[in-house]
Amino acid sequence: MISFHPLTLADKELIVQHIIPTDNRDCNLSFMNLISWSFLYDTEVALHEGWLLFRFKADGHNAYMAPIGQGDWPSIMQQLTADAEQQGHPFLLFDVCEKSFAMLDAAMPGYFYATSDRSFSDYLYLRTKLASLSGKKLQPKRNYINRFTAAHPDYQFEPLTPAHFDECLQIDTLWAQEKAQEIDSGDFTYESERRAMESVFTHWAELDGRGGVIRVDGKIIAFTYGAPINADTFDVCVEKADTNYEGAFAIINRDFARSLPEQYVYLNREEDLGIEGLRHSKLSYHPELLLHKYTVTTKHLPAIH
């Protein structure tokens, strides 16, 4: 029997110890994301036979993430399917990356059925490219920055601290007046994102967050923050700006990438949720790769969408 318990801040060390050394780059595995969105998904965690396991609620039924660890894949998968049956729910795995699905399929050939949704693929970029914006493909981004710096030559980039939080929330409110209706997508709504953001700010010290703000004439006009996923990948959880300042998004993106330690080879800028404008923006930075993720069920059960 797997002993799941509700995810809390006390689980940080357990989770970080198991995820940081891996090659998992899924944005949903950063502890900041896991804990700040746990209110929405009733996230639970367990360490079972050396495997790190997550169980949560999705559209009213239980779901799991792919097991993290090494060992007997058939055994742990059989135990997860048994847990789902015991809970009275069909078995469902979310956010299964291609490598994990290959392991599942190799361990239990022909047993699982996978579907994918492009809207939930993560965008991964080389940190050095976002920091330099070199090359012909990124010339439009450099143009935005050149116009911004010409208009605001005395702008400042500062590391995000609790002293900035109130102004950041004001920027978020301003941004939402224009964009909130565009981003509402299933469970992801402006209200849920705001609650997750407030949770991050409340527990900033415990979450080891890193972020940055852009000031113009003493006023914050853009901010961003995130946290590590593993040893070489940093998750950019939030990026907001006052759209009245042309180039504000481009400058906060570049300057934050420049501020991060060199150990981070990749920046995961998360999914586009199928939102046309967001997809265009993320593609315009020419990602190094798209991390496709699958929804997995057992073949003897109907696929769940």
Task: Describe what you observe in this structure.
The protein has 305 residues and is of the alpha+beta class. The protein has 12 helices and 14 strands. It has helices at residues 12-19, 31-36, 38-41, 73-87, 98-107, 127-132, 139-151, 165-183, 190-202, 204-207, 248-259, 276-283; strands at residues 5-6, 44-48, 51-58, 61-65, 93-97, 112-116, 122-126, 156-159, 210-216, 219-230, 233-241, 266-268, 289-291, 293-298. The protein has a 7-stranded mixed sheet with strand order 1-2-3-4-5-14-6. Helix 8 (165-183) runs antiparallel to helix 9. The longest helix is centred in the middle third of the chain and has 19 residues, at 165-183. The model is unreliable at 301-305 (pLDDT under 50).
Write a compact overview of the structure shown.
This protein is an alpha+beta fold and 305 residues long. The chain is 39% helix and 26% strand.
| Order of neighbouring strands in the sheet with most strands | 1-2-3-4-5-14-6
Q: Kindly provide the radius of gyration, computed on alpha-carbon positions and rounded to a whole number of angstroms.
A: 20 Å
Estimated structural class? alpha+beta
Give the low-confidence spans: 301-305
What general form does the structure show? elongated
Q: How far from one another are the termini?
A: 28 Å
- Mean pLDDT level: 93
Main sheet?
7 strands, mixed
Question: Helix fraction?
Answer: 25-40%
- Beta strand count: 14
Report strand %: 25-35%
